[in-house]
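Risk mitigation, structural track. In case the binding assays with magnesium ion fail to produce interpretable data, a predicted complex structure has been prepared as a fallback.
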Amino acid sequence: MGLCMSAENVDALRRNAEVDSQIRKAKRQQRKEAKILLLGSGDSGKTTIMKQMRLLTDGSFSKGELESYRQLVFANLITGMKALVDCLAEVDLTIEDDTTALDAYRTILAAPDVRDGQAFPDGYLPLFKLLWEHPVIREGINHCRRFAIPDNVPYFYSHLDRLWAPEYSPTNLDIVQTRARTAGIVETTFQISDSFAHTAIPDPSARAVTLTEKYGRRKNKGAETIPGISSIVSEDSNITELDSDEEKPRAKFQLKFSTTKTLRFVDVGGQKSERRKWIHCFEDVTAILFLVSLSGYDQCLVEERSTNQMSDAMTLWEGICKMEWFRETSLILFLNKEDLFRAKVAESPIRRFFPDYNGPLGDAEAGKEYFQKRFIRIEHKGTLQLQQLEKSGDRKTPSNKPYTSARRRQVYPHFTTAVNTSLVLNVMIDIADTVLRDQLKDADIL
Ligand SMILES: Nc1nc2c(ncn2[C@@H]2O[C@H](COP(=O)(O)OP(=O)(O)OP(=O)(O)O)[C@@H](O)[C@H]2O)c(=O)[nH]1
Ligand SMILES: [Mg+2]
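Fallback model:
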């Protein structure tokens, strides 16, 4: 038996070993990344969560981004007023018999885009104000709710004077309130290392309470007590700025992780025409972050007036829950726009749109629970269907591996207000603490 090998064979073996090593390295690298896929109907708040992640990781936006958002604010003022005026006829209202208002409306519709560095044009401020204060518009806001008027209209219109200041630059709150529908797929990678959250928190005392409740009084907790998180550092003394919208001081927070992790967030467009692109992102998903607009229970879709936003979200969710792709994928459910939901639920009875709702009229908590239960029930049905498929034959996952019954997927529901940075931070801590810990533990990252 000879152990001799030709030089060629030795070379080939060495090359194979190198290739194997590279593949192993690439796989390890891939496993170090958690891919979070954001899904949900249009306008549910997916991109807003991406913006919050930017704030929670980087703490700010670049000069160029601030300029783009500034221009978007001006555009949002126009599209918001247009959406409102377009709906007036549906509720038997019109501004057509008021020539001053009509002229103002036509002028703002024809306004040229704001260019780089150019302040909002002076002559337009009184026109926007005139329209916003017009009795027909005010009445329209209340009556047109079901037509999905952009949620940021009351916010931006109540800050007109501030927006027209020559040195105006959008605050973080302005940025998360801006609206531009997503077209295509946008991937953003967030490095979560020493400081996950290093951001201005509007209400430091509220944060401190929440963190204390959650993790106890000690400032620095070891990785063994909160796996993956080495410390939470409150810097309440580090008061940084006053937000122009809030008189409360802001404090900085840092959440420290014991290891560096990469979170790849994939944001997609949620409007109907965008959904056929989603399938391109279904591979290797660590967790789905599914957003639902809670306040959409009495509203139609922007792109399809005959469809209720909440019903559309339920149908989408059902489709996702039944997909074999996501058989073992954690599902994070954000029942979002809780702030708007609370504000409207007393005036707009849930039962009018969901007749099986039998909670008390105007009770936000009962309403939240009702919708959460419906989404959880839909997920259970989806899981059941997948299990039946599994039993009925040797179904394979899309990656062609047999299912492992050892790991059943989990659903993590949260009520969220995506425009509120500190509330989003809380939820993100939860996600890091539970979902990602479970998933990343499997990949030896934590
Ligand atoms: N008040 C309030 N507004 C919110 C909340 N979440 C999102 N918004 C606003 O809702 C609008 C739509 O949010 P986006 O994040 O652009 O929605 P999207 O899901 O990315 O929409 P598509 O890109 O069309 O799929 C923006 O103006 C946000 O500021 C919330 O919790 N409360
Ligand atoms: Mg979007």
